[in-house]
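Section: protein folds

Sequence with per-residue tokens
===
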Amino acid sequence: MEATSMSNLQKNLRSTNYEDYGKEHFLFLIRGNPFMAIDDAKSSPLEVKLFEERGETSRFTTAEIKETGDLVVLCQDIGKAPEEWWGDSDYEFWVTVKEEDKNKLLLALIEKLYGGHFSAVDEFRTFIETKGIPFGWMTWT
């Protein structure tokens, strides 16, 4: 993940319409650090944007595999709602799945997505192909 210093943004962030910065930057506060802009084009392949909505209260949600191998799903609300509820311009919350538990999560997600599907293997293969994930394919007759 490449971070870019945004000193002008830091100075004006509380009184600025976040939409002015465009879709090329995803803004969020990293656990009390100054605001950073994450350039989507330079983001790690181990991080995905799950949700982005801009408005009076903007919400940004990402999933990321940390250097430790842990999976973190992070959400940040910026704007009116956090101001009213917490007296601060942003609020963050996240869920962490430890590296040693990711395989359990992977199987649970595959079961949720493909459980009960006659063509589960074909659907799964198509999905990983579209994501560019290497895999092996084999048949037995």
User: Anything to note?
Assistant: The radius of gyration is 19 Å. The first helix runs from residue 7 to 12.
